[in-house]
Design goal:
Distance between the termini of chain A: 13 Å
Strand order of the largest sheet of chain B: 1-2-5-4-3-7
Largest sheet of chain B: 6 strands, antiparallel, barrel
Largest sheet of chain A: 9 strands, mixed
Number of helices of chain B: 7
Oligomer: heterodimer
Radius of gyration of chain B: 18 Å
Strand order of the largest sheet of chain A: 1-9-10-11-8-7-2-3-4
Radius of gyration of chain A: 24 Å
Strand content of chain A: 15-25%
Structural class of chain B: alpha+beta
Number of helices of chain A: 14
Chain lengths: ~400, ~200
């Protein structure tokens, strides 16, 4: 029996009902959020002082303000000739039922040139992970301690490799003109967040990631116009909303407010329903406009999950409010930031709301269901050809046989 | 002079499909093209041209609402030429082996990935010395506009001869003989040759 859609549709119907109430609550929270937002507009120093006053007591993360948070910057003009490189990846995770212990990462790239020399290069690069070093991260202080690279860790590894590929390409292509370098999603390795992984695991990946990221900085330092951007569609981030919660809190250090101001507790929680994208959908009314720049709090400090400082802004793409993350050196360079803003907006416009280069990189990277089957068949037949003792498990064989 | 224009991507006994090396640059309808089975040169007449997405799951969409010029669409979307392709189908009308042109089906279809050349005037003149190929066109059961094809290739062959009217007359006679029992069809083709 396949999926019982009739039974499922009843559940979906039931799940949808409370969402109407949630939507009404969101609208009321947004109205309150906008009132706090405009109340604190023009008081960046006071807000910074409040953030600094809270210090390490805060239970939520707030970004550092670089400018007035209500600033709205219109789309700048495009350079005549420029390039956009985007990278995306997909993976086939390890499967203990398969014959050979291995994983696959497929990295797709799209290099698009605009202007006089308009042309494109689309490609993909498969990478088989099957050696000990590919499949495990070992603790340098205790060789018996090792972490298998699979699931979230394989995803993080893929992000690192994608960044490496992008750095490699930008090194070559930056000779041809200014470049926007795009990665799909955050520049921060969120998969390493929390206590899921031991320090040596995070350190190993962050070190490798840092090497790749710093190659972009070296290019910028060498005078090349190369802007790295992590593009997050439908971001779930609520860092700026957290800042609103803090601004709205009557407690000077936002620590004991729940006990001291029971009424305020409701207000704080009310704003907590929102995402940054809800807020900026109201603030950034013109397509192409971007928000002020904020420094991401997770990219610094002891438990940083990014090897470089990351700043972000929100962009109205005409279809949604996207989050764009840039490394510190791009944030510090007004001309480069302007280039990133202009080209990102153009990309979104050409791609009907989503950067066209990222769409094409995704198309290059995608591993279809048929590709997956081909991959495992290839592994299996190679094992048989070389008489390797790697037979798929009985469970795996049974699933494939599907006998009647 | 013959020009290399594409590559065979599908072939059978009576026709072959080729991918054009350049997007939107397929040979004109009715053109004589040449491929090879490794030994013989195989001649075909282009009867269908298709430009579409390389990936059947991705359909092209309109992109030019804000553009002034059609070329701007391609300039602003440089990925398009990589994601679209132009293919053309040709009806096999003869072959050349050991220097002799024969106007009937070759023993084997062209090889896949074999180059396809657009025949130059000299080759068109050489191939159309005999008019037996017209029989292959009018009698074939391919789902193609065969009457249009017959007329187009006669017009092009006449042009290759520098507008030699006597060729048109000879081709008309040949068609009159082949379609003696179908006057309506004959008239339709002759009208198309004249225009």
């Amino acid at each position: 029996m396949t999926l019982d859609l009739l039974a499922l549709s009843r559940q979906v119907e039931e799940a949808a009902l409370p969402l109407q109430d949630a939507e009404r609550a969101r609208e009321s929270s947004l109205s309150r959020a906008l009132s706090v937002f405009s109340h604190w507009q023009g008081t960046v120093d006071a807000l910074r002082a409040k953030v600094d006053g809270c210090g390490a007591h805060m239970t939520f993360r707030v970004p550092r303000l670089r400018q007035e948070w209500g600033e709205v910057i219109g789309p700048p003009g495009l350079p005549e000739d420029y390039g956009v490189i985007a990278v995306d990846g997909s993976q086939i995770d390890r499967d203990r039922h398969a014959g050979l212990d291995c994983a696959l990462i497929n990295i797709g790239t799209a290099a698009l040139w605009y202007g006089e020399r308009s042309h494109a290069d689309l490609s993909s690069q498969p990478l088989l992970l099957c050696k000990e070093n590919d499949l495990y991260l070992a603790d340098p202080e205790n060789k018996d301690n090792r972490e298998p690279i699979e699931g979230a860790l394989l995803h993080a590894k893929r992000s690192v490799l994608e960044c490496g590929r992008l750095a490699e390409l930008s090194q070559v292509l930056s000779e041809e003109g200014p470049l926007l370098c795009l990665v799909d999603n955050s520049l921060v390795l969120w998969g390493l967040m929390g206590r899921r992984f031991e320090t040596y695991v995070r350190r190993a990946l962050l070190e490798e990631y840092g090497v790749h990221l710093r190659r972009f900085r070296e290019l910028a330092q060498a005078g090349k116009r190369v802007a790295l951007v992590g593009y997050v569609s439908k971001s779930d981030s609520s860092q700026v909303v957290n800042l609103l919660r803090l601004a709205d809190c009557q407690d000077p250090d936002c620590r004991n407010c729940e006990e001291r101001y029971p009424r305020r507790q409701q207000s704080c929680h009310e704003l907590g329903r929102l995402r940054d994208r809800d807020l900026f959908a109201a603030v950034l009314s013109t397509p192409g406009s971007r928000s002020a720049l904020f420094d991401d709090p997770v990219s610094t400090g002891e438990n940083a999950i990014s090897p470089v400082e990351v700043s972000f802004f929100y962009l109205n793409t005409g279809e949604e409010i996207a989050r764009a993350e840039v490394p510190g050196w791009v944030a510090d360079d007004p001309a480069l930031l302007q280039f990133a803003h202009a080209t990102l907006w153009s990309q979104a416009r050409l791609g009907f709301g989503y950067p066209v280069a990222l769409t094409e990189a995704h198309e290059q990277a995608v591993v279809s269901v048929a590709d997956r089957e081909q991959f495992w068949s290839l592994i299996e037949s190679t094992s048989y050809t070389h008489r390797l003792p790697y037979a798929p498990s009985i469970k795996s064989q049974g699933k494939r046989l599907r006998a009647l | 002079m013959c020009t290399k224009i594409g590559e065979v991507v599908e072939a059978n006994t009576i026709s072959f499909a080729a991918q054009s090396y350049e997007l939107h640059q397929a040979p004109p309808f009715g053109s004589l093209v040449r491929a090879s089975d490794g030994e013989a040169d195989i001649f075909g007449l282009v009867y269908s041209v298709v430009t579409a997405s390389i990936d059947t799951g991705r359909r092209p969409i309109a992109r030019g609402r804000d553009e002034q010029d059609e070329e701007d669409i391609y300039r602003n979307n440089p990925q398009l030429p990589k994601l679209l392709r132009t293919d053309f189908d040709s009806l096999i009308v003869g072959f050349r082996q050991a220097g002799t042109v024969r106007q009937y089906l070759p023993p084997r279809p062209p090889r896949l990935h074999g180059f396809v050349y657009l025949s130059g005037n000299a080759e068109i003149v050489e191939f159309t010395q005999s008019l037996d190929f017209l029989n292959t066109i009018v009698s074939c059961s391919l789902g193609a506009p065969l009457d249009e094809l017959a007329a187009a290739c006669v017009r092009l062959a006449e042009e290759a001869r520098g507008g030699d009217y006597s060729f048109r007359v000879a081709a008309g006679r040949e068609l009159a003989m082949l379609l003696s029992t179908n006057q309506q069809r004959l008239k339709a083709i002759l009208r198309r040759i004249r225009q």
